[in-house]
Specification:
Layout: E1 7-11, H1 29-38, E2 42-44, H2 50-60, E3 66-68, E4 73-77, E5 89-91, E6 94-98, H3 103-111, E7 117-121, H4 127-134, H5 138-144, E8 150-157, H6 159-168, E9 172-175, E10 180-183, H7 188-203, E11 207-212, H8 218-223, E12 226-231, E13 247-252, H9 253-266
Parallel strand pairs: 1-2, 1-11, 11-12, 12-13
Antiparallel strand pairs: 3-4, 4-6, 5-6, 7-8, 8-10, 9-10
Length: about 270
């Protein structure tokens, strides 16, 4: 790949662009700076909420669209595309394409599955409990609870029974670095495909890079041209993630992110 191509970088946040424990992106600053200088979009595609992503976008200095809650919503800054396209509504400066099931419906379905074991979702936890469990600040924990399409939860019990019940309810599940997630028919890959089509209308042919670290990133990694799996903190990889042409970074989190972006795009 060369910097003359129209390149889009889709990235998970937790454990990928930002450190799993410290929530710092410092180790990726060189690559982030190079991408910004070349005008290559950096597009968060994560299980985090819209509010959380907005928080990180402002701190990192990102200006491009993003995908929230495992493909539940696509948020496109107003006037980002200079053509008309279908979207469901507008919210705080964004045009929104909604693929997800409303959070209240997700929560209602999850409540019906508590017979399979111990389920503790973000909706069951106070902001203080989320902060303690995740290492987030209180403010970030409150943002993590502002869910719109996806419930993050801890579970111990009959995993096979739970998975079957989720499917029977017409919903889907995945797992991230810390939590199970229950959602509608959305996933990261479906959202990426929609956004790529919009970029193609704007730029013409594009090449896509995707970076992630966990099972919930697999749908994204399967639809991008260059899929990259970063290491976990222990130096291993999520064995459940397998995609054609998969590249495995030689370092965890933002360090691996930085190394692979520089090698692929600027080496």
């Amino acid at each position: 790949m060369t910097s003359s191509e129209n390149i889009l970088v889709f990235t998970d946040l937790d454990g990928t662009l930002i450190d799993h424990d410290t929530y710092s992106w410092g180790a990726a600053e060189e690559a982030i700076g190079r991408l910004k200088a070349e005008g290559m979009p950096i597009i968060p595609c994560t299980s985090k909420t819209r509010t959380e992503i907005d928080f990180y976008r402002k701190r990192i200095g990102l200006i491009d669209p993003f995908i929230s809650e495992n493909g539940g919503g696509i948020f496109i800054p107003e006037d980002y595309f200079d053509f008309n396209f279908e979207y469901g509504g507008e919210m705080k400066g964004y045009k929104v394409i909604e693929l997800g099931t409303p959070y209240k419906d997700i929560r209602r379905a999850l409540d019906d599955m508590r017979s399979f074991g111990d389920i503790i979702g973000f909706g069951d936890m106070s902001a203080e409990e989320v902060a303690e469990d995740t290492g987030l600040s209180m403010g970030e924990a409150r943002m993590a609870k502002e869910r719109e399409y996806d419930e993050a939860f801890k579970f111990s019990g009959d995993e096979d029974g739970l998975r079957k019940a989720i499917g029977k309810a017409g919903l889907n599940w995945t797992r991230g670095g810390r939590y199970w997630h229950i959602m509608g028919e959305n996933d990261k890959g479906k959202a990426v495909k929609i956004l790529v089509r919009l970029f193609e209308r704007k730029l013409g042919a594009v090449r896509t890079v995707g970076l992630g670290d966990s099972l919930n990133d697999l749908p994204m990694l399967r639809v991008v041209d260059i899929p990259i799996l970063v290491q976990k903190k222990d130096g291993g990889y999520d064995a459940r993630v397998d995609a054609p042409r998969l590249i495995k970074a030689n370092a965890p989190g933002p360090e691996g992110w930085n190394d692979e972006i520089l090698r692929l795009l600027f080496g």
